[in-house]
Amino acid sequence: MTVLEQLEAAEDFTYVERKIAAFILEHKDEIGVMTISGLAAATYSSNAAIIRMCRKMGMKGYKEFRIQLVRDIERRQREKLPVNMDRPFYKEASASDIVKQISDLMTETIRTCYESMPVRELERAARWIVEADTIYIHAVGDSMISAIAFSNRLIKLNKRAVVVNQYGEEWAYVRNAGRRDVMMVISYSGHNLLKRNLCAGLRRKGCRTILISSLEKVTDYDAVIRFPARESYESYGGKMATYYSQTAISCILNCIYGIAFAKIGE
C-alpha cells in the first residue's frame, strides 16, 4: 500500500495516530511544507507520536514520510479517475483535489462532445446563422448565460442576435420572425423548449429552427444538435452545479461560432 492508502485505511492506528492521519488527509496541500513540530502542534500530539506513526508505515522518519506522501498525491492527481458529473468532489476534498476533479470533468465533457457532436448539423446551423437577418435564441436559467455570451459573440460577425425571453418579450419576437431568420432553442433537459404551437408557427413562416439539447427523438425542429445526457436533469437531490451541461453547451456554441466565422471569411 502507498503512504496515502495507509493513511486512508488507518489500520492498526491508535486513536492519536488516527487523529494525525485525518488531519494530514484534510490538509494534503500543506503537508509538503509543514515541519514535524508544526504538525504536532496542529494535531495536539507530539513529535514522538508522529515518528511512531511514520515507522509503523515503513518509513524511517517524518522527512521520508513527507517526501513519499507528496509523491503519492502527485501520482494520484495524474491518474484518470471516473468523473461524477453531478458531484465531482465532496466538501472534505482539498483545494488541489477540487481543481483536479473540475479539470477532469471539463476535459471529459469536451471529449464526450467531440465524439458525439453531429458535424453536419453544426455546419447547417452555422450556415443558417450566416444567412440570417436575425438570430433569435430561447434559453432559461444557466443556459441563458451561455446564450447571452453567444449573442454577444455574434456581433463580431455583424449579426443581430436576440435572447427572446430575457425580458419577457418572447411572443413579440416570435410573431415578427420570418423566413430570413433563425430561432435557436437551448435546453439541456428539454424541460424549457418553445411551446409546440410557437415552434410550428415559426416553421410555417419559413423561420429555421435549431435545438441544442440532450433530449432524444425530437422532430419539431429543422436541425437538432444533440449531446449525451451525463448529468441529472433535476437541480435537487445531490447535483452540485450544471458543470457538465453548461460546459457542453458552451463547447457546441463555440463550434457553431467558429464554423460561421470561417464561412464568412470564405
In words, what does this structure look like?
By secondary structure, this protein is an alpha/beta fold. It folds into two domains: 3-79, Winged helix-like DNA-binding domain superfamily/Winged helix DNA-binding domain (Arc Repressor Mutant, subunit A), CATH 1.10.10.10; 109-264, Rossmann fold (3-Layer(aba) Sandwich). It is built from twelve helices and five strands. It has a five-stranded parallel beta sheet, with helices on both faces. Strand 1, helix 9 (142-154) and strand 2 form a beta-alpha-beta unit. Helix 7 packs across helix 12 (243-264) and helix 8 packs across helix 12. The longest helix has 22 residues, at 95-116. The chain is elongated and about 80 Å long. The protein starts with a helix and ends with a helix. The model has no long low-confidence stretch (mean pLDDT 87). Residues 1-76 form the HTH rpiR-type domain. Keywords: DNA-binding, Transcription, Transcription regulation. InterPro entries: Homeodomain-like_sf, HTH_RpiR, RpiR-like, RpiR-like_SIS, SIS_dom, SIS_dom_sf, WH-like_DNA-bd_sf.
Read across the widest sheet, the strand sequence of neighbours is 2-1-3-4-5
So what's the overall shape?
elongated
Low-confidence stretches: none
Number of helices: 12
Number of domains: 2
From N to C, what is the helix and strand string?
Answer: HHHHHHHHEHEHEHEEH
CATH level 4 superfamily of the largest domain: Glucose-6-phosphate isomerase like protein, domain 1
- Give the C-alpha Rg: 26 Å
CATH architecture of the largest domain: 3-Layer(aba) Sandwich
- Structural class call reads alpha/beta
| CATH topology description of the largest domain | Rossmann fold
* Percent in strands: 5-15%
Give the helix proportion (percent range).
40-55%
- Average pLDDT: 87
Q: What kind of oligomer do you see?
A: single chain
The CATH class name of the largest domain reads Alpha Beta
- In whole angstroms, the N-to-C terminal distance is 59 Å
Q: Using DSSP, what is the number of strands? A: 5
